[in-house]
Write the structure tokens for this entry.
Amino acid sequence: MSSSEPLHVVVIGAGIIGAATAVELLRDGHRVTLVEPGDPGGEQAASYGNGCWLSTASVVPMSAPGIWRKVPGWLADPLGPLTIRWRHLPRMLPWLVRFLRAGATEERVMATGRALRQLIADCPERHRVLAEEAGVGALIRRQGLLYVFPSRAAFAAEALAWRVRRANGVTWTELDTDELRQFEPVLDRRYTFGVFVDSGGHCLDPGAYVAALVAHAVAQGASLRRTRATGFRIDGGRLRAVRTEAGDIPADRAVIAAGAFSRALAAAVGDHVPLETERGYHAVIAAPEVAPRHPVMPSDGKMSITHMASGLRLAGQVELAGLAAAPDWRRAGILRDFALRLFPGLPRTLPEDRVKVWMGHRPSIADGLPCIGPARATADVVHAFGHGHVGLAAGATTGRLVADLIGGRPPTIDPAPYAPGRFRGGRAHRAPS
Ligand SMILES: Cc1cc2nc3c(=O)[nH]c(=O)nc-3n(C[C@H](O)[C@H](O)[C@H](O)COP(=O)(O)OP(=O)(O)OC[C@H]3O[C@@H](n4cnc5c(N)ncnc54)[C@H](O)[C@@H]3O)c2cc1C
């Protein structure tokens, strides 16, 4: 129980960030209302369809030195692993420029890596605890993550990424060709080098996990309002209510955890955050004939492959095309076809009813870090969005951090790198030492 007064906190959005935050606020004795128009953990949320990875090694931001050279390719190849639709380029440009700047030097990449590491360092264990509290401990697996390469040279070509990992305390075991064959016999023989990160974990069903966290929060006294938040009633610098399509909900505090849909809500409390959607896809092959024992990431596929509850989930692709454009399902087909090449034991053709596809929105901030902390207009509203590629992993720690900020406790990690203030007047973020 926190030393602060119990408050009524309205949490906007019931993806992994909102769900974990609700559980942590209840732990501190607060009263919680969750506002969510969809099913908690439902298909509308990135938290439903992600790659299932609870990766302790995801400390490498997307933007890296020299990446700007790849921009023409992103525009030219509509089906490449990262693409920008031309129509969206003018609107995307300010985000893109900030994104490229964030990775312009190795020092910046290292600083971003340190800030990410705080959020994910012990993520499998933190999620195990949360999941067990919610009665679904079996959904969290801690059996490591495997990166595979066509050659040792391909691994060496990613030297910066692995330097960032090493500098952040990530350890791994390297597997030569024979060791890799024994480790994952179902993999295509084209892969001759592996890197195993045994501290990593995965979730067998992220959507079910989020739904269970929300059900647990409700069982602990939270109320769930099935509506959409539209803004805030603020009076004399204090929050009075969260405005929703179903009327105002009086509140002492509010948390914006609406993922990629948070930008307008943040702007309503004075923060203009460079938040974009990095659209991603998955394909799930039901009842796969073969499956790897560990979640796998092939270096040449830029995707994660995880044997989860409903089948073999292939997740990846980055498409910069805004929140409203229709999905391009050819991208899910690319993921499926790559997996067929990766696992020769899968049938060459799969009937359509064995492959379920999905598209969702990674909430991505240009500098590669989430926005967590008090809003400009009032500290009664706390931002908790923008986790990009690592939101599932970072969800547990983020929930605890937000509850600490609201309860006035000293947080267990340094919140400075995620401060919303970094977008006010261009102040650079301070990385934890
Ligand atoms: C293809 C893909 C693969 C990924 N793989 C991984 C991975 O392996 N590991 C990992 O850690 N991360 C991964 N991610 C990223 C991760 O899924 C996200 O960072 C994370 O789910 C974001 O969680 P969230 O709660 O912020 O947002 P969401 O899960 O999107 O939830 C936001 C919720 O807010 C609700 N909402 C929206 N607007 C409003 C409103 N106005 N009022 C109330 N509610 C609202 C939505 O309905 C939604 O339910 C992946 C993402 C994608 C797309």
Q: What stands out?
A: The radius of gyration is 21 Å. Residues 283 and 332 are 6 Å apart (CA to CA). Confidence is low (pLDDT under 50) at residues 426-433.
